[in-house]
């Protein structure tokens, strides 16, 4: 088992992603919404499911980079603990959002069966025109196999 | 309609989770995890899924978003929190369900929400929803 040092995992707390802008294109919202099985929303509203990838890509990172940051041993070693989406304003298509993101927390934990995992929290903030639009928190488990 | 704690939100059905939609989702998300699109690889892993691919977490969550939108409108969700104790597989028939647990002074309500397959809870979470 390739077990990163616990200190190396804790050291990523506070890591800031570059940040940046992101606008949800109409085609993107159309396809995303279709994937959920819903009809298109009215008035240029974007489906909230965009609150997974828009913060990640808009903050200048990627799922792959987030896996690497936590030294995931493979894509299969990642488990989802929770997603928390706070929505202050509805998302809209073609509106440019300013997005920042960081590693909020990282700690080594143990499953009941003794397997180790690193519990890593990422937080992203979306704003438009200086007003907060949404905050998302992703908590993933980076499973490290048997102890 | 009067909403009180205990009110059951009208459920939302996904009759068959589509692997084609998972592939589209993976492309949009730039999600490199092949468990969402490579059925041969899924079959080779000790996951017990056979050739069925694993639905993305946000897609499972989105079924509960759809339930809440149909009930309270497309701008109604103020917060949604979701945990993922079980996986959702391609071809699964799943149903999003929810119940109102509390009324807030600001006109929002708190809800417990979950996704079921044959009565088994796969995803579980909470939502804060604005009612008109």
Description:
The complex is a heterodimer of chains A (147) and B (132). In chain A, 22% of the residues lie in helices and 37% in strands. By secondary structure, chain A is α+β, with helices and mostly antiparallel strands. The model of chain A has no long low-confidence stretch (mean pLDDT 95). Helices cover 25% and strands 34% of the residues of chain B. Chain B contains 3 helices and 5 strands; from the N terminus they run βαααββββ. Chain B has helices spanning 19-29, 39-44, 57-72, and strands at 8-14, 77-83, 94-103, 108-117, 120-130. Chain B has a 5-stranded antiparallel sheet, with helices on one face. The mean pLDDT of chain B is 95. The A-B interface holds A 28, 31-32, 34-38, 41-42, 45, 47-49, 51-53, 57, 62-64, 67, 75-76, 78-88, 90 and B 14, 21-22, 24-25, 28-35, 45, 57-59, 61-63, 65-66, 69, 74-75, 77-84, 125. Strand 2 of chain A pairs antiparallel with strand 2 (77-83) of chain B.
Range of strand content of chain B: 25-35%
Biggest interface: chains and residue counts? A-B, 36 and 34 residues
**What's the helix count of chain B?**
3
Structural class of chain B: alpha+beta
Write down the secondary-structure element order of chain A. HEHHHEEEE
Report how far apart the termini of chain B are: 11 Å
How many strands of chain B?
A: 5
Radius of gyration of chain A: 17 Å
Globally, the shape of chain A reads: elongated
Q: Which CATH architecture of one domain in chain B?
A: Roll
The mean pLDDT of chain B is 95
**Strand line-up of the largest beta sheet of chain B:** 1-3-4-5-2
CATH class of one domain in chain B: Alpha Beta
Instruction: Name the shape of chain B in a single word.
Output: elongated
- CATH topology name of one domain in chain B, in short, is Thiol Ester Dehydrase, Chain A
Tell me the β content of chain A: 35-45%
| Major sheet attributes of chain B | 5 strands, antiparallel
How far the N terminus sits from the C terminus of chain A, by CA atoms, comes to: 9 Å
């Amino acid at each position: 088992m390739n077990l990163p040092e616990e200190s190396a995992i804790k050291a990523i707390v506070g890591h800031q992603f570059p940040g940046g802008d992101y606008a949800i294109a109409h085609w993107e919202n159309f396809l995303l919404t279709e994937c959920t099985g819903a009809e298109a929303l009215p008035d240029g509203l974007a489906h909230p499911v965009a609150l997974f990838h828009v913060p990640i890509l808009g903050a200048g990172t990627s799922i792959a980079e987030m896996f690497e940051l936590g030294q995931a041993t493979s894509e299969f070693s990642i488990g989802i603990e929770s997603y928390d989406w706070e929505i202050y304003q509805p998302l809209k298509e073609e509106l440019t959002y300013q997005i920042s993101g960081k590693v909020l927390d990282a700690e080594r934990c143990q499953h009941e069966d003794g397997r180790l995992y690193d519990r890593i929290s990422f937080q992203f903030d979306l704003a438009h025109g200086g007003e907060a639009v949404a905050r998302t928190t992703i908590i993933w488990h980076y499973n490290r196999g048997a102890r | 309609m009067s909403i009180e704690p205990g009110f059951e939100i009208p459920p939302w059905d996904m009759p068959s989770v589509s692997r084609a939609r998972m592939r589209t989702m993976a492309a949009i998300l730039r999600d490199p995890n092949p468990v969402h699109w490579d059925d041969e690889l899924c079959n080779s892993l000790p996951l017990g899924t056979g050739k069925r691919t694993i639905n993305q977490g946000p897609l499972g969550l989105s079924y509960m978003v759809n339930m809440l939108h149909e009930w309270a409108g497309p701008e109604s969700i103020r917060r949604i929190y979701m945990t993922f104790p079980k996986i959702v597989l391609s071809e699964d028939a799943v149903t999003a369900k929810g119940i109102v647990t509390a009324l807030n002074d600001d006109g929002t309500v708190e809800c417990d929400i979950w996704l079921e397959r044959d009565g088994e809870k796969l995803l579980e979470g909470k939502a804060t929803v604005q009612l008109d």
